[in-house]
Amino acid sequence: MDAVYVLKDVRKVYDSRCVLDVAHLEVRRGEILAVVGPSGAGKSTLLRLLNFLEPPDGGTLIFQGHQIGQEPVPLHLRRQVTTVFQRPVLLSASVARNVAYGLRLRGMRDGRREVRQVLERMGLADLARAPARSLSGGEAQRVALARALILRPAALLLDEPTANLDPYNVGLIEETVRGMNREEGTTVVLVTHNIFQARRMAHRVVLLLGGRVVEEADAHAFFEAPRDPRTAAFVRGEMVY
Q1: Cα–Cα distance, 42 to 115 (Å, whole number)
Q2: Which of 9, 20, 112, 187 could be stapled to 42 by a disulfide with Cβ–Cβ 3.0 to 4.6 Å?
Q3: How far apart are CA 68 and CA 60, in angstroms?
Q4: Any idea which architecture 3-89+153-235 has in CATH?
Q5: What are the mean pLDDT values of the chain's consecutive 10-residue runs (241 residues total)?
């Protein structure tokens, strides 16, 4: 299986402090990779590199065969990656216009059919004309996910996408992501502190501690037979540093 992302000796430094130091990591095409770890482990920093918000300060980051450096990432590569953050920022417009926003930026003037389909999939069809900023937290997060999925990205990056949501919205979002991965082969990187969510969704799991990869394994092996004692402690719900 080929890789969408390859990281080799990738480092990120803030104020002379190295917050990410990844010797080697691959994100395989068509997989759901969960990145877990406690707060401050470097998960969000890793995601910022993967979505090109920041460049690495050292090492090699490759996306779709292209090396990513300090220079601006070409638009055709940026458009292959979409991120859903924990706290979505929605436009002051209707739900449907929010979902169609990315299509309009890409020159698609009439995306009504695509918008309708993704809204139905996310259980939002009845809210298409509602002001997006009037929605509940769970509904707003589903709009953010719909806005990402309609673009059919090669890589979908999720940053704690269901934190603080009720079980109904958690289940709907998880099933939608699994469905897109299964049906369209969308590569997903899920950053989460929720080991139960990682167990439900991921094909492979990576544990980050102190900005370093402690363990990387298929989900079953990660949870049932971890090699590193720190991984075993994390899976048991203990605090690890």
Answers
A1: 35
A2: 20
A3: 7
A4: 3-Layer(aba) Sandwich (3.40)
A5: 93 93 97 94 94 94 93 92 89 91 79 89 92 91 93 94 90 93 95 92 96 96 95 84 57
